[in-house]
Specification:
6-stranded antiparallel beta barrel; Elongation Factor Tu (Ef-tu), domain 3; alpha/beta; elongated; 591 residues; Rossmann fold
C-alpha cells in the first residue's frame, strides 16, 4: 500500500518515519548505529530524520528535497511510505510523490501549529482524490504533551479538512521520544486512539488495478514487413484491467472495433492474457487503422469519456503564469494534444482556502479549478472512477509546468460530429486489402490536399495544375471541387445565400473524402477561406493524419497552413512548393 507523508517544512515528517523504521526493525543491519556514529564524529545531535535524508543537500540544510520511498511491513501487509518535501520550492516533488498514494499522513508541529503548507498539502491531497487521512500532531514533547494544545490544533485542522471534503483520525506523537508511533508510551494517557502503526493497518487498500475496467493507451502500432509479416501489432502498457485473446476491443476516440487475435511478447512463452502494469502488444483479427494516443477498451465494459472540453483541478508550478488565449500541450496517457485555458472557475488560496474568481491567470504555486479546451477530442476517465486515466500534465515551452486530475467531462462543440463518426467507424466494413497494401501498389500514401484562400485568387487553377502534375508522374490523384458536393451530396440542405449549414456541408464533404482516402487516392479539394474551426471538423471526420493545407492569397484566416501559394501569376512555383512538401512528408517518392 502506498502512503504519502506530507506537511509544512521542518514539522517532523522524516523524524516520524525514521522512528517508525527503527521501532519496527525495518532498517538494514547496522544502519542506525552508523548514522549515530556519523553524528558523533561531526559533533551533531542525532536525529531520526537522518535515516531518510540521505542527499548531501538535505543533510546540510535539514530539509527533504526529493520524495524518498521507504519500505516496511506489518503483520497485515507491505507498505511504501513516500516522504514528500514540505518546502514550497519543492512542491512539484511533493505532488509527484502524492500522485501514487492511496492514503496520507499529514504532519503538524505541535509547537508551531498549522502553517501555510499544512493547508496547501492537505488541499492537494484532496485534489488528488486521496480520501484516507490521518493527521499527526508531532513534537508533542516540545509542548510538554499538553492536551489543550493538541485539542486546539485538532479543532482548527478538522474544520479545514471538512472544507475540502476530507475527514480523518488525529494522533498526538513524538518522533524523538517514540510516543504513539508503534506503542502508546505513558506520557499521553489522555489519548485513547490508535498508534501510527495501528492507523496504517486501518486504511482500506484500493481494489487491485486488474479488477478495474480494461484501459490501455496505445503507445504505437508496428509492422515488421522486412520479414514478410503483414500483421499490425498494437503496443502499450495496460493501465488497468485485463485483456484476453478473443475479447472485442473498442478504440477511443475513433470508435473503431476489432477483437484480439493474439497477445505478443519478445522472447517469452506464448500467453493469452495481459494484465494491469504489463507492457504488451497484441494483434487484431480485423485490420483497422489506429494511431498513438487512442485508448483500447473492452467493448462489454464501461466506456471512457470522450470530449474536447473538461473541468479539472490543477496545480501550477511553471515560472510563467497559466493564461488564456495561449496554446499549451497536454500529456494524458500517450496522448499529446494542444489545449487552451477556457475559464478559471476559482483559484484557491492554500493558506486560508479563500477563493478568487476574478483572477485572470493561474500563477506559480496556485491551486485552481479550471475548464480546458483541446483541439482534438481526448479520452479519459474521471478521477473518481479510474485515477490512472484521469491524471495529466501540462507542458509550456518544453517544460512540465502543471498537473491535475479531470473531474468532469463537458459537452464540446463537436459532440454532434463525434457521434456520427463513432457510429460510422463501429459499422465500417474493411476489405482484405489494407491501406499499406494500396500504398505499396500505388507507390504513394493517401492524403488530402486542401487548397483554400480568398475568393477569385486562383485556387481551382492551382488545384487542377497540381492534379495534372501528379497524374503525369503516375500518381493516383483526383480533384474534387466543393460545388461537386454542394449540388450533389448536399442538394437536400443547400439553400441559396444561406451558410448556416456549413458544419454539415463540411462533414459530408469529409465523409466523401474519407472513402476516397481509404481507397489510397491523393485527393485535392478547394474551399473558400477555411478556418481552424472548419479544419477541426474535417480532421475529426477523416481517418488519416495526412491532411495538408495550402493557402492561396495574401490574407490568411487563422487556419494553420503548410504551404502559402500566390496563385495564377506564380503557378509553376506553387506547384513545385506543393510537390516538395508532399515529398518531405513521405506522401510521394523523393528521389
Amino acid at each position: 500500500m502506498n502512503i504519502v507523508i506530507a506537511g509544512h517544512v521542518d514539522h517532523g515528517k522524516s523524524t516520524v518515519i525514521g522512528r517508525l523504521l527503527a521501532d519496527t526493525d525495518s532498517l538494514p543491519e547496522g544502519k542506525l548505529e552508523m548514522v549515530k556514529r556519523n553524528c558523533e564524529l561531526n559533533s551533531r545531535p542525532f536525529e531520526y530524520a537522518f535515516l531518510l535524508d540521505a542527499l548531501k543537500d538535505e543533510q546540510s540544510q535539514g530539509i527533504t528535497i526529493d520524495s524518498a520511498r521507504v519500505f516496511f511491513s506489518t503483520a497485515k501487509r507491505d507498505y511504501i511510505i513516500i516522504d514528500a518535501p514540505g518546502h514550497i520550492e519543492f512542491l512539484k516533488n511533493m505532488v509527484t510523490g502524492a500522485s501514487r498514494a492511496e492514503a496520507a499522513l499529514l504532519v503538524i508541529d505541535a509547537a508551531e501549529g498549522i502553517q501555510e503548507n499544512s493547508r496547501r498539502h492537505g488541499y492537494m491531497v484532496s485534489m488528488l482524490g486521496i480520501k484516507q487521512i490521518v493527521a499527526l500532531v508531532s513534537k508533542m514533547d516540545l509542548v510538554k504533551y499538553d492536551k489543550a494544545t493538541f485539542d486546539a490544533i485538532v479543532a482548527e485542522y478538522k474544520k479545514f479538512l471538512s472544507d475540502v471534503n476530507l475527514s480523518g483520525e488525529f494522533i498526538p506523537v513524538s518522533g524523538m521520544a517514540g510516543d504513539n508511533i508503534t506503542a502508546a508510551g505513558n506520557r499521553m494517557s489522555w489519548y485513547k486512539g490508535p498508534t501510527v502503526l495501528e492507523a496504517l493497518d486501518i486504511f482500506i487498500k484500493d481494489p487491485p488495478a486488474i479488477d478495474k475496467p480494461f484501459r490501455m493507451p496505445v503507445q504505437d502500432v508496428y509492422k515488421f514487413t522486412k520479414w514478410k509479416d503483414n500483421r499490425r501489432v498494437v503496443a502499450g502498457t495496460v493501465a488497468t484491467g485485463q485483456i484476453n485473446v478473443g475479447d472485442e476491443i473498442v478504440f477511443y476516440p475513433s470508435g473503431k472495433t476489432s477483437s484480439v487475435k493474439s497477445i505478443e511478447g519478445f522472447n517469452c512463452p506464448e500467453h493469452t492474457t495481459a494484465s494491469a502494469g504489463e507492457a504488451v502488444a497484441f494483434t487484431l483479427s480485423k485490420q483497422i487503422y489506429i494511431k498513438r494516443g487512442e485508448m483500447a477498451v473492452k467493448a462489454n465494459q464501461d466506456h471512457p469519456k470522450v470530449t474536447g472540453r473538461f473541468r479539472a483541478n490543477i496545480f501550477w508550478m511553471g515560472k510563467n503564469s497559466l493564461e488564456k488565449n495561449k496554446k499549451y500541450m497536454i500529456k494524458l496517457g500517450t496522448t499529446k494534444e494542444t489545449v487552451e485555458l477556457e475559464q478559471i472557475i476559482r483559484i484557491i488560496n492554500g493558506a486560508d482556502l479563500s477563493s478568487e474568481t476574478t483572477k485572470r491567470c493561474v500563477e506559480r504555486h496556485d491551486v485552481a479549478e479550471c475548464i480546458f479546451t483541446s483541439q482534438q477530442a481526448l479520452t479519459f476517465d474521471l478521477t473518481e472512477e479510474n485515477a490512472a486515466t484521469s491524471r495529466f500534465v501540462i507542458v509550456d515551452n518544453y517544460e512540465i509546468c502543471g498537473g491535475g486530475i479531470i473531474r468532469q467531462a463537458l459537452e464540446d462543440k463537436h459532440l454532434w460530429l463525434r457521434d456520427y463518426v463513432m457510429r460510422r467507424n463501429y459499422k465500417w466494413e474493411t476489405g482484405i486489402i489494407s491501406r499499406e497494401d494500396r500504398a505499396e501498389r500505388y507507390n504513394q500514401k493517401s492524403a488530402l490536399i486542401l487548397i483554400t484562400g480568398e475568393k477569385d485568387v486562383g485556387k481551382k487553377s492551382v488545384a487542377k495544375a497540381v492534379e495534372a502534375k501528379l497524374f503525369a508522374e503516375g500518381k493516383i490523384v483526383y480533384f474534387l471541387g466543393i460545388g461537386n458536393i454542394l449540388y450533389g451530396v448536399d442538394a437536400d440542405i443547400k439553400a441559396p445565400g444561406i451558410n448556416s449549414n456549413k458544419p454539415e456541408h463540411l462533414r459530408r464533404l469529409s465523409e466523401v473524402a474519407n472513402i476516397m482516402l481509404d481507397a489510397g487516392i491523393i485527393l485535392i479539394i478547394t474551399a473558400v477561406e477555411l478556418t481552424n474551426d472548419d479544419l477541426e471538423i474535417i480532421k475529426g471526420t477523416i481517418d488519416t493524419d495526412s491532411i495538408e493545407v495550402i493557402w492561396v492569397g495574401d490574407s490568411p484566416t487563422d487556419v494553420n497552413y503548410d504551404v502559402k501559394a500566390s496563385g495564377v501569376e506564380t503557378i509553376d512555383e506553387d506547384i513545385d512548393s506543393i510537390k516538395k512538401m508532399l515529398q518531405n512528408k513521405g506522401i510521394i517518392f523523393k528521389p
